[in-house]
# Entry
Amino acid sequence: MAIEEKNILNRLYFVAGCMFVFAIAVTVNLIKIQFVEGEKYRDLALKNTTKNFTIPANRGNVYADDGSLLATSVPKYDIRFDAVTVSPENFKEHLVPLSKELSKMFGKPASFYQNSFRKARANKNRYMLVAKNLGYSDYIRVKKMPLFRLGPYKGGIIVEQRTVREHPIGKIAQRTVGDEAYDRPGYYAVGLEGAFHELLKGKEGHRLKQKIAKGQWKPVYDDNEVEPQDGFDIVSTINVNIQDIAHHALLKQLEYYEAEHGTVIVMEVATGEIKAVSNLGRTKDGTYYEKLNYAIGESHEPGSTFKVMALMAALEDKVIDTSTVVDTKEGVKSFYGRKIYDSHRGGFGKISAAKALEVSSNIGLATIIDEHYAANPKKLIDRFKNWHLTEKTGVAIKGEGEPFIPEPGHSKWSKNALPSISYGYNLRLTPLQTLNFYNTIANNGVMVKPRFIKEVRAWNRKVESYDTKVIDSKICSDETLKKIQEILKNVVKRGTGKSLYSPHFSMAGKTGTAQTEYWMDDWRENRRYVSSFAGYFPAEKPKYSCIVVIHKPSIKKGYYGADVSGPVFQRIAQKIFTDAPTVAEIASIDTSDPAITKDFENYYAKVQTRHEKIPNVKGMAGMDAVSLLENLGLKVKIEGNGTVTSQSIEPGELLKQGTQILLKLS
# Structure
């Protein structure tokens, strides 16, 4: 055999051998994949075609004390267009009528939409935005338009649904109600939404889905499927009428006095229920909004409103009586090398202890406290501790400020600490902590815990009730209470609050005017004050307590508590009992009478019922009726304000989604 033929034959043997080895390797790998690693690759393939989707739970609603909605979750829809999936015939046939319908609905020219769709078609845009943030009824209307009615594959419509939190009363009480976005890093949960997040959020579910054509996913039902559990609803203590009164009374005063910020709290005396909280801060352009929760979170020197606590301690310890004479000199007196001044030029001279509080004499209170407690200051501080003035109130809303009253041995204690404390300096309290003490006076010495929630509900079932919690059944003697109550009435009748007095409506309380930022270098040239008024009404049988605190009003217009904060207190008190008598009388409603149904129960029963017919919303609050009907798919228009007096579609008629209904309110 020729050498060349042998070489060819050898090469053929070599190639055949390699192929044989390769075949063996392939066979081994196939066996390995099938029998050894088969489970691994089957799992991988399954993971690529199946996915465990999270099903979010419906967040619970937040209600006011009468059932009015403060916060609710509603669906919102974004409409997009897949310009690739639509056939040329369908695109050509429906483009013009679709553009005309969109023009009618959203106001832009039909030519705008035609050009937008053609551009999307030319660019093969599969995600063109058509409309955002549509309510349910508008979404249904768009879905039924030409081309879109053909569905996602033939009509190219893409619908993205999400749930958003809405607040029917708007920005009023925004910091008290709060919002639901709690999962952002570094986010500080605020208000009722933050305090009761765990109750409201519910439990998310899980569902296995399989990937099908065009990126679509369909449910695959298996034993591991978990349905979501809706969050609980909470019924708060907030009253929308009182909240509205408080908000506008505070806003009006802040705007007039060009103040930096202010807060109002209204509390029900017997129960501790917070009926209104308004917190307004000034922006750079001079407008006001719910900036921070000053009522609960801001500790500050209370000033003269704390004189009540000081005098009350002296009365309870029986070191003085209301008739004890105190010499206020001529308006200036030195205490341990430091001068204390009264605001009244020339001073008040020798006056009774009761008069010293009525006219808010710094010297009078400092003299009383220094003379009777300088030898044993701990006795006074312990009295304040026994009255829970050094403790937080423990309200559910997060961020309560820390109270501070120094005692002997503290770095901020000195001989001057005692006289300073007597008229509200060298200590710190939040407005709510101060109010809670005044509420205790109004409640005949019974200290109750302030609270923001009445009950928790699941659908139409009460899950838990939050009753009044007594912190201290009696903080002092009846004798002391009667004396301090009489003085607080006289503050308004003939003392620093006499400009607020009305023979037709009785109030009791104490004015406060405190210097602030007096430690700043520019204080003498640019003095700043905190004006306040704390008290309760009516004076004889108190129903509500209230505090108003306004920071840094323009001193050109005024800064005394009686002038700046007092009128807000007066306006709130009188409006509650004159302009809105139903609010004042609500506690006396006989709920055992079957003919009487609470607004809350009326609304709640309606909103939790599946409707096939138009419900009767007459007599409901306008905001509640709109929310109910829009969630049923109706297009709602309203005329007027208040409660619903008539509806254009009579109750009982067949419900057709997208139908317009007119509500008249008064």
About this structure: The CA atoms of residues 529 and 552 lie 5 Å apart.
